[in-house]
Every structure is written in C-alpha cells, then in structure tokens.
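Protein chain data
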Amino acid sequence: MRTGHDVAVIGAGPIGCVAAIAFAQRGASVLLLESNPRTSERFAGEWIHPSGVRILESLGLCDLEALVETGPKRGFVAHPDDGSDPIFLPYPDGMTAASFDHGELVSELRRKASAIPGVDYVAPARLTKLSPAPAYVDGKSGAEIRIEAKQIVAADGRRSGTRRLLGLADGSVGISFMGGIVLNDVDLPAEGYGHVMSGGPGPIMIYRIGANKVRMCLDIPASAISLRRDAKALYEAVAPTLPAPMATALAVSLKARKPAWMETRFQTRTEYGRGNVALVGDAVGCTHPLTAIGISLGLMDVEALLDSADAADYARHQRAAARVPEMLSNALYQVFSDNRYDAVAIRRSMYDVWRTDAAERRRTMGLLAGTDLRGRSFATSFFRIGFKAARKTVGSQASEGRWRLVRHSLSRFVSWSTWPLAGLLPGYRKIPAHLTAPRVGRPG
C-alpha cells in the first residue's frame, strides 16, 4: 500500500465509496478507510432520486446489480388517509430513480472501489486524530498510522467522528423513530413506484429492494415509542392503513423478525468542513428519510466537491444547492405526520392540488427529484397548497359564526406561511415546527 495519497476518504458507505471512485477516476490516489465494515448491514438509505442517478451514470456506476435488480423507479404514489384513490406522482420528463438493498449496494461499491488500482481500502480502520497530523488505528494490527494526504473527505455519517475532531458540534435533534422490515413475496400496489401512506401513528414508506423483497418503513413519534417493543400493538396500529395483501405480509414478517429501528434526526446542512477536510453526505447534515433525499444529497456533495476550486467554493455552492431539498423534506414530513387540524387541512389541500393539477405534480416531483433547486418553485407550491387550505378552513368557520376559532386558525396558518417565505429568502433555513413545539389537537 502507498505511504502517501492525494485524498483520504473516511467512511466506506455509499457516499464514501462513490467519492473514492470519483477521485480515482480523475487520477488521484485514494486511501479509503472504514471503521466498521458491518455498518452496511444496518437499516439505512435505499433510494436514489434522478439527480443522484445522473451522477452515478456520469461515473459509470448505474450497472451495479443492486441497482439493476429492481428496475427503474418512475416516482411515488401517495395514499391519502381519507380513503380516497391513490395519487400517482411520476418524475418529470421520464426521469427515473433507483431503489436497492442498502447492504448489497455498499458491498458492490466496496468491491468496485477496491478493484481500482488508485484506491487503497483499509478496514477496519478508525480515524483517531486530525492534528497535529491526521492518523488512524488499523483494526487488525492495532498500530496508529499517520495519514499522508493533501485532502480529507469525511463521509462517516450523521454521527461523524471527523466532524467531532474538527470541533464542530453535533447540533442534531431527534424527530421520530423509523422501523424497517422486509416483506417477502408481495406485490406493490403499483410496481415501479415508491408508496407513501398516512393514517397510522406516522407516515409509512414502501418500496421494492429485490426481486422478492419489499421494504416497509414504519415511522412512529417519540410519544408512541412503546410500539417498538410490542409487535402486536405495532401491527394493530398500522395494518388498517395498508392494502390487505400488504397487511398480511407484514403480519408474517413480524412473526419472523423484529423491525430494525433507527432514530430519525435533523441536522441543518450548514457546515461543510474546515481547512483541507471536507464533509459530505450525512456528515454535513441530515433530514427525515420520508423524502429519501439523503443519498442523493450526498452524491451532489461529491460532485460539487470534485468541481470546486477550493473548500470555501464547495461550501458556498452546497449551502445554496441543499437548502431547498432540506426544506422540502422538513415541510413534507410535518405535513404528513402532524395531526393538528391545520396540518390535516394542508395535507388534504395538498392531495386535492396533486390530484387536479398536472403542473403542480410536475413541480413537486422536480423538487423531490433534486433537479429543481429553486426557492421560488418551493415557495409557489407551498403557498398555493397552504392558501387553499386556509381559505377553506377559515371560510367554513366564518360561515358558522365561530369567530374565536377563526382567529385561532388564522394564527395557525400564519405560522405555516413562513415556509413559502423561506423559499423566497436566500439563506433563510426554516427549522421544522415538529422539532420545537408539542403536537396538540384541534381547539374546541
């Protein structure tokens, strides 16, 4: 193995492996370190939006078996909690996404990276310090080895040790808990799409990760944490929202295994590194996985880093590029998970607009795909949906002469108005209300 490298990549998950491959393809010598190879077996991101697929295509990585097995994904299907018909939300212009088994994709990417002559893959290897000189401990020999590299790229996830060594505080905040479980030999309501269902303790996301495997992601609020330990209660809470074949498959899976649980967290994407150390992926920040934007944002980080003149240029570009996807993720999770009357009104308004307006479906999916990063697109979409919800709710209350409730409703909808405002103000980063305020029911 070389004693010196152009780039050291910390973390050999999907983003770290792609970063190593991308730098090597440009002629750099790369040291790729992974502290715990078994982390690839955990429940983690399994969807790549069209923006990420484009980056993989540019690197010649779209022929990986884990990506090809399930076929291209054309968008999402929203299943309203009011029992109305599902709403198809295809990506615009024929763009497609990819879904996969996380562990299988990481294994392939590690093999791909290791086979490149310019990449030295070392595992297990834990970064121990960045100053006065960066070093890692070799897990096999126990020796501390100095890292000789011009640039360090940290792709070591939301609990990034590199971030901590840089002196950057972990400002992440817990949102909810999400359990992932595999359903075997079951058909999706519409193949080739991801599915989002509401009506249970929290939103549910379902997508295919193999020829005979479907992943179900069950989100529960912290207030319902007991469902993590009680499979029977969990099933009873979510089964009514599922199509009958899916509910049956879930019952079978819950008898065989427990869901793999993870805490979902929010960390705003504002810190991109210091000096010659660049952060990418969840090491920068993370959002709720409902919109499945995490891996795509990480791939966008890698592409921007490769094309940046320096670290400051990279940070400046990505702070602007990631702002709208971050806000979209926060806003959609709040709309899908919050059961206050104003959130329910906005959710129903969103369904109505999606169902009747092809242009709005296209705008929403361009934002979700990561191909439309314009704040005004986000602002326009959210304003239309929110204004329709407010007009309908307040108009109904006024016609009934419930003026006290009208005043309360207006104040609630005014708080939602900061979302489109955030889209129009460059640099404004909206913190989701579900992180800062308890959820309450409708006033009497």
